[in-house]
Predict the 3D structure of the following.
Amino acid sequence: MVMSSFVSQLEALRTHLIVMGEKVSQMIKTAINSLVSGDGEQAKEVIASDKEINEMENLIVDKAINLIATNQPVAGDLRFLASSLRLATELERAGDLGTNLARRLIGLKSLSQEGTDSEPLPDKLISMCSKILNMYDKAIQSFVERNASIAEEVLLLDDEIDELLKVIRSDVLAKVTLNGRLVRWGLEIIFAAIHLERLGDHATNLAEETIYMTKGKNVRHHHF
């Protein structure tokens, strides 16, 4: 049976989203690896890849809008196309945050080069990095496999990320209070934690879109 032009274009759009999702996921992994390992070259690689992510978002948005305008889709197809627009935006914003995270590593490295006081990455920040990687692995897997159950697992992890941000802020402020020369280090750590928390929000949004596409159930702004 020959696949209709509309169906084939939907599949092509889905493929573009999967590729973009995997690229953004890899970008985040590289950004986190650069932060944890102190690898400045990896950080530069992340920053350089941001333009490609922006171009992918534009391509997906253009294709989705064109399909909506020319085919008058209904039901599941319309849900998929509407979600595609939101997914592309979420992925692009996640890519921006990956770039910001890479810049935090460059900022931290400059401290040692300038002889400014600094400390190793807090254990809680490293734990936060690990949890974010897990969230993105699950978010992308849930979309690729069209698996709402895996997407729901992502939603359950978001509160843990929020709590870690609070603890990191508190711990860093306590250190800075004791040693004022750690202020710049503290700012870089807090900004890194904020970027990670926002990455968690975007992973949650990606999972919510997968649930919407697969089940027609809107769970945005709701908690399990």
